[in-house]
Structures are given as C-alpha cells and as structure tokens.
Amino acid sequence: xxxARFEWQTRCEFNAYCKRTLRNELIDASRExxxxxxxxxxxxxxTPHEEKQLYTVDKYFVNEDKEEAFCVxxxxxxxxxxxxxxxxxxxxxxxxxxxxxxxxxxxxxxxEAMKIPxxxxxxxxxxxxxx
Length: 131
What we know:
With about 130 residues, the protein is mainly α. Helices cover about 65% and strands about 5% of the residues. It contains six helices and two strands; from the N terminus they run ααββαααα. The protein has helices spanning about 5-40, 50, 80-90, 90-100, 105-115, 120-125, and strands at about 70, 75-80. Strands 1-2 form a two-stranded antiparallel sheet. Strand 1 (about 70) and strand 2 (about 75-80) form a beta hairpin. Helix 4 packs across helix 6 (about 120-125) and helix 5 packs across helix 6 (about 120-125). The longest helix is centred in the N-terminal third of the chain and has 37 residues, at about 5-40. The N and C termini lie far apart (about 110 Å).
C-alpha cells in the first residue's frame, strides 16, 4: 500500500468523523433549544398566583419602628429600656448578670470564669437589682 494513499485515506476518515461529530452536536443543541422553548414562560405570561411563587418577603423587620415589649406588673419593658438598665450597672455586676441570665451559666461557672469566689458572683448578681 502506498504511504501517501494511506495518509490521504486517514485524513478523509478523520475529516468525516469530525463532520459527523459536529452534525450530531448541532442536532443535540437544536433539540435542547426546542425543549427549552417549549418549557420556558416569560414573566408577562405568568398568572399573579404563579408570580407570587417566585419570591418570598422577609418580614423580620417590617415594623422596625414598633418596638417589641412585654409587661411586668405595671411596667412596659422594651429592649431599649433593658439595655439602658444593663448599661447603668457597674462592669463587674453587668458581667455577672449577663453571664447568668443570658448565657445560662451557674454561679460556680461564672466564678471559675471570672476567677472570683462563688459568693461574690451571687452578691454581684443579686445586688444589681437594687441599683
């Protein structure tokens, strides 16, 4: 067999393979485009009910001006009022109150963390109500 003829035949086979591959890819892309076209809907074609299913509304801060509060006795306690009361405490008492009520630590755990006696923690916590 002639080497030039063999090389020519190999080129022709490779050329045919490339053309067949490109043709098949074109057919696949065309099918995919038609399939998407059948399934896609423009926003203007959606019903109001379908539109509402496409998004959600975050309602966490809808009424930011309206401050959440709870009543204890005749007092209306708000977050701002509670924060002001905590800021008015001395640092050592504030730390004991925050760790006890907001971090659910016991007096023993607070004493170990602050490296002070347990009775001091209890005193700071209970005396902070007198301020």
